[in-house]
Amino acid sequence: MSDVASAIEAFDLTIGRAVDLVPQNDLAAVAAIANRARGRRGFLGETLVLALAGGTGSGKSSLLNAIAGRSIAATGVIRPTTDRALAWLPARPEKGLTELLDRLDIDDRIEHESFPRLALIDLPDHDSIVVQHHLIVERLLPEVDGIVWVFDPQKYRDPLIHETYITRLIDYQDQFVFVLNQIDRVGPRELTRLKADLAESLAADGVEDPQVFGVAAAPPTGAPVNVAEFRRYLGEALDAKNVAAGKLLGDIRRGTRLLLRGAGLDQVPAVEFDTRWPEVRAATVQALVSGSGFEDAICHLGDFITALSVETGPAFGDKVRTRFSPEWLEGALIDAIGDAGGPPPRARQRGRVGRALHGFWSGDQSKAADVAAGPLTAALDARVGLQLREVLWRRGLLGATVALTEIETRRAQQALG
Ligand SMILES: Nc1nc2c(ncn2[C@@H]2O[C@H](COP(=O)(O)OP(=O)(O)OP(=O)(O)O)[C@@H](O)[C@H]2O)c(=O)[nH]1
Ligand SMILES: [Mg+2]
Questions:
Q1: If you measure from the C-alpha of residue 403 to the centroid of ligand 1, how many angstroms do you get, rounded to a whole number?
Q2: Which of 67, 75, 83, 136 to probe ligand 1 with, by most ligand atoms within 8 A of CB?
């Protein structure tokens, strides 16, 4: 998987783990960033991936050869010349690109060193009688950065390409580039008219402000025309892609920091529950067994909860205080005593800490000895320790996922250069 995609994935995971641990409005702001990231179209890697599409004989393969500066793809007069998609991709391609080509069943791959981070896919003609050709374009579109539609002076108004493809796929128009090839075959005045005419039919398809590049990829005599300009344009598109990806990564990092703060993880990453809990548990058991009282025992637990809630920051701390309220602790302690074989409480008045059992214990101190320390310790672990550990574990997990997202975004940023 490519680095930007990994960063988005880690970010999604972080958001999932932040639910219930950060304030709702922070979560909503971060979810909006994630939606934008997910909605981003194109190849989520550092390579600019473009597919060349268009009618047979328009010059797709010739354009690829002209950009490459050498003969890569077969071109010819017998139509269709290209019957299998061909990828021209950087040597040592990033993993995501190889995976994309695998997914698209594009097995013909030619590696190059000439244009770093540019991959072009030469497609078979769109109007071929072979149905799969049509399907390739539609499968490709969501996963590549763009489609270069190649027209020629004869068939640029071809209804099939306008109606079947461009109109139907108009939602992808930001990813479309339009090229009028074979301009060597027309004079300058004719060329102006043709470009205007093509732009007009594209506008009728729904393309906003269509721009048309005029090129001659393989004139019978002389060098290609305007191909150097087109290469420059591709360079700019690559820069634009990097800028957009950099911005996206910046957004992800901002969102991640928001979650970090929301969960109080920026203040205290870990509360060292496992080293502190045994002491609190021992003091609680001691209070009950030695008879200093139920209220005392509740106080030990309550103080611990307060300390944890202060340390874990306002948003998360609030959750801890609410979840482990004095009433809850009282109930849990009564249950723990019951589990340990202690005397059942005579009365239980929720909301008044310790009141219910105070008389019970202090009225008859000797009853304290009815509860054995060992079973009570185990029962406290089960009734209180486990629950606390679970909540703090989820917070820790969020912290770890935040760290993972940081690593992935930095890695992706580095790959972008
Ligand atoms: N005059 C002129 N002929 C060109 C130009 N570009 C390509 N051709 C010719 O047009 C014919 C078709 O070119 P290809 O590049 O094979 O076209 P294609 O779009 O790949 O065709 P398919 O693979 O069948 O879809 C070839 O004979 C080329 O030599 C150009 O700029 N000017
Ligand atoms: Mg071809």
A1: 52
A2: 75
**How would you label 60-72 residue by residue, b for 16+ Cβ within 10 Å and e otherwise?**
bbbbbbbbbeeeb
Report whether the peptide linkage leading into residue 188 is cis, meaning its omega lies within 30 degrees of zero.
no
> Tokens standing for 64?
């690829």
Q: What is the pLDDT along the chain (417 residues), one digit of tens a residue?
A: 568 888 999 999 999 999 988 888 999 999 999 988 887 778 888 899 999 998 889 999 999 999 999 998 888 766 566 678 899 999 999 888 999 999 888 899 999 998 889 999 998 765 554 455 566 677 777 789 999 999 999 999 988 889 878 998 888 888 899 999 999 999 999 999 999 999 999 999 999 999 899 999 999 999 999 999 999 999 999 999 988 899 999 999 999 999 998 888 887 777 889 999 999 999 999 988 887 778 889 999 999 999 999 888 777 888 899 999 999 999 999 899 889 887 754 444 343 444 445 544 544 443 444 678 899 999 999 999 999 999 999 999 999 999 999 999 999 988 887
Site to substitute for ligand 1 among 52, 56, 61, most atoms within 8 A of C-beta: 61
Q: Quick check: 43 and 144 in contact, CB under 8 A?
A: yes
